[in-house]
């Protein structure tokens, strides 16, 4: 091959490489622009959901407030139940003391035996 043919061949190769590079750059720019547009659309969709997010946040806050009220009511109810159990224990102890006192006075009851139970003998309730 002569020099002119080699130069034409080299120039043709350089031109083809330049065209391929230009096409690649253009495709890359096009993809980048498409991604920017897609990101904008996704942001618009996200912004459209802001109202739903606000409503959900308000619902969650209201539910949390109701739960706090319910917890406070449950704590009060538990306190009342504990007080009622304590009152029951005191009343039962007083009744047992009265039965023991009656059994101690009753000549028919052996309140010192191992199997003794307050009010078991000589009582209408037992």
In short:
With 126 residues, this protein is mainly alpha-helical. The chain contains 2 helices and no strands.
Based on the model shown, name its key terms.
single chain, mainly alpha, 2 helices, 0% strand
Mean pLDDT: 90
Low-pLDDT stretches are none
Number of helices: 2
Helix content: over 70%
Q: What is the string of SSEs from the N terminus onward?
A: HH
What is the strand content?
Answer: under 5%
Q: How would you describe the shape?
A: rod-shaped
User: Nearest-angstrom radius of gyration?
Assistant: 47 Å
Q: What characterizes the major β-sheet?
A: none
**Distance, first to last CA:** 130 Å
Pairing-aware structural class of the strands and helices? mainly alpha
Question: What is the number of beta strands?
Answer: 0
What does this 3D model show about the protein?
This protein has 2 helices and no strands. The chain has a domain at 3-77. The protein has 126 residues and is mainly alpha-helical. The mean pLDDT is 90. The chain starts with a helix and ends in a 21-residue tail after the last helix. The chain has helices spanning 3-48, 50-105.
Topology of this protein?
Elements lengths: L2 H46 L1 H56 L21
């Amino acid at each position: 091959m002569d020099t002119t043919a080699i130069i034409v061949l080299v120039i043709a190769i350089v031109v083809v490489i330049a065209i391929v590079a230009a096409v690649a750059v253009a495709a890359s720019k096009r993809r980048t622009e498409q991604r920017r547009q897609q990101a904008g659309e996704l942001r618009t969709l996200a912004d459209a959901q802001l109202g739903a997010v606000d409503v959900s946040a308000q619902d969650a806050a209201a539910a949390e407030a109701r739960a706090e009220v319910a917890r406070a009511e449950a704590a009060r109810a538990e306190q009342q139940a504990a007080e009622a159990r304590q009152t029951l224990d005191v009343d039962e102890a007083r009744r047992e003391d009265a039965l023991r006192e009656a059994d101690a006075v009753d000549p028919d009851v052996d309140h010192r035996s191992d199997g003794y139970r307050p009010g078991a003998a000589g009582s209408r309730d037992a």
